Amino acid sequence: MKDARATTAVLGFPGYRPQAERLAAAVGAVCEDVDIRHFPDGESLVRLPERVPEHVIVCCTLNDPNRQLIELALTSATARTLGAARVSLVAPYLCYMRQDKAFRPGEAVSQRIIGEFLARRFDALVTVDPHLHRTHRLQDAVPNARALAVTAAPVMAAWLTSRPWEPLIVGPDEESEQWVRRIASAGGYEYCVARKQRFGDRDVRITLPHRDFAGRDVVLVDDVISSGHTIGEAARQIVGKGAASVVVLVCHALFAAGALEHVEAAGVTEIVSTDSVPHPSNQLHLDHLLSEGLGRAWSNGNQAAQGG
Ligand code: R5P
Fold it and tell me: Which protein residue has the closest C-alpha to ligand 1 atom 9?
């Protein structure tokens, strides 16, 4: 059997090298960089190692999507020119998944368009908890037999159960229930879910369920923090109801400008995130989950190709 280090390389995007190194160690591959330089007018010059092995795994989360999508297109095409037979993408945060329909006439259905853009350029794609709402399967958004979504819920649950406490797990909206239920059940913790109405990017109304929050250690769980207004508003109300502590546990710590300040001002005790998106709150590593997902994406896809 060939040594994986001779046949596979993980190529990390700038700013994502620690995650790429951990993924390479989990996969048993070498880790190298995708070097990217920006010209004064904003164009990107992408440079790969001169020699690439048979399987190139590009490791790049998509938290700065408009720039990174172009750079991914340049990277996948260059990897093939250099002789890679297989090019996979590991993108823990998958961008543009929220716009899954035209809410107003004339709007782009970004999920499908960006999904096809990636599906055409990569032979396999692994992501974590993509924001699929009305679309239920990742492959309906990214039409590629080797597109696979894994969930960070077990990693988040392991962190929760490693602490000696009896927290109340709270989801800020109905969509969060799938993660909240799963994470709470791992420790046998109580959970509940609030209702959310969104009126604008930074304008949300949260209605908490009827519960006694006084004196409780509350853990607010969500898949994404972007503007911080969903979690901030939920935390502000829970703190106001006398909770002993409010910890925020999130998968994708996007934290747009001003979001961290907004969440901290709501009175949260601690913010804990996965390393899907680089952020000071990162405490939970996803490397083993991603490595296992990559193995599954390739074997599922191969079975599909053989009609299995
Ligand atoms: C939405 O349904 C998601 O689960 C998050 O609650 C949302 O994306 C958070 O966005 P923001 O931080 O801008 O309120």
Answer: 225
